[in-house]
Specification:
four-stranded antiparallel beta sheet, Gyrase A, domain 2, 2 domains, two-stranded antiparallel ribbon
């Protein structure tokens, strides 16, 4: 039973780590990445639709993202969605293709992005700790119901703590790496 709880904890913590990686991909650095536009939705015949489902995204150069809509009539809506996003990007249209130049980050914007990164990191650390708490409560309940011994409970609690420490350190390592990338001047 303790192995099952630990396996479930590991699965949930992996999901938290994957979610953090996904969040990091959407944080802007000086480099172009199609992941920057992942969260954008375009009004597609009255339905908010993810940008990557109505257009082909590409990165032909390190500082430019190209957006080619499958339906050319969507060009204006896509341009509007990019402009109105909080990314501070200004797309240019040539009639068939949108070019989105990625301007270099100002020092102030870098600091804002690092603050945002720290908030996201703390939210994911908290998620991992909540998973630990849930598992610890489940182990204590099993002990209370006399389904496991005190030694098994102690081993389970130690294992869950090791898992938590491992995942928190992984989150922090990825956060530090992204912070270096944001602060790096080109």
């Amino acid at each position: 039973m303790t192995n099952q709880i630990i396996a479930e904890a590991k699965t949930r913590m992996n999901k938290a780590l994957e979610d953090f990686r996904h969040e990091l991909a959407t944080v802007r650095t000086g480099r172009a990445s199609t992941a920057l536009l992942d969260h954008l939705k375009v009004d597609y015949y009255g339905t908010p639709t993810p940008l990557n489902q109505v257009a082909t995204l590409g990165v032909p150069e390190p500082t430019v993202i190209t957006v080619q809509p499958w339906d050319p009539s969507l060009l204006g809506a896509i341009e509007k969605a990019i402009r109105s996003s909080d990314l501070g990007l200004n797309p240019m249209s040539d009639g068939k293709l949108l070019r989105v130049p990625i301007p270099p980050l100002t020092e102030e914007r870098r600091k804002e992005l690092v603050k945002h990164l720290h908030r996201v990191l703390e939210n994911h650390r908290t998620a991992v700790r909540n998973i630990r708490r849930d598992c610890n409560e489940a182990l204590k309940k099993l002990l209370k119901d006399k389904k496991i011994s005190e030694d098994e409970e102690k081993r389970g609690l130690e294992e869950v703590q090791k898992l938590t420490d491992d995942f928190v350190s992984r989150l922090e390592a990825q956060g530090k790496s992204k912070e270096r990338e944001i602060l790096e001047l080109r």
